[in-house]
Amino acid sequence: MRDDNLTKLSYNSQRCYLRKALNDKYDPELRRITIDGTLNQNQDYIYTSAENLDVYLGVMYLAQDFNYSNSVVDFLVNVPGQLLSDKINEITATVNFYKLAGKSYKLLAI
């Protein structure tokens, strides 16, 4: 039990240590779990005709909702799909244990 506690204390909420903790515990051979930030894109708004603004939209590409600058997601945890479906509760508990209070995340299957 002492060795387990020392191992837990060797990690912290920094991105590199959190990624190491997840890979050591859930994917030690291939180490495919990564942590990324969001893109913080500005949103394009579509106006109604009552607002009397330009109607032409041009080319628009939609992004995931967490990639916009006013999103509540602070970082993304990319986990292989099979591993995520098998151990989603354990991975969530591990990330919650190490992340800073007030930070939010989203688990993504890769």
Describe this structure in words.
This protein has 110 residues and is of the alpha+beta class. It has one domain. Helix content is 35%, strand content 13%. The chain has a three-stranded mixed β-sheet with strand order 1-2-3. Helix 3 links the parallel strand 2 and strand 3. The longest helix has 18 residues. The model has no long low-confidence stretch (mean pLDDT 88).
State the total count of DSSP E strands. 3
User: Beta-strand level of the residues, as a percent range?
Assistant: 5-15%
Query: Separation of termini?
Result: 33 Å
Q: Name the structural class.
A: alpha+beta
Low-confidence stretches: none
Quaternary structure = single chain
Query: Rounded to an integer, what's the Rg over CA atoms?
Result: 19 Å
Helix content: 25-40%
Order of helices and strands: HHEEHE
> How many domains is the backbone divided into?
1
Shape: elongated
What is the residue-mean pLDDT, rounded to a whole number? 88
Helices, by number, come to 3
Q: How is the biggest beta sheet arranged?
A: 3 strands, mixed
What topology emerges from the helices and strands here?
Elements: H1 2-9, H2 15-26, E1 34-37, E2 75-79, H3 81-98, E3 105-109
Parallel strand pairs: 2-3
Antiparallel strand pairs: 1-2
Helix pairs in contact: 2-3
Write a concise keyword list for the protein shown above.
110 residues; alpha+beta; 3 strands
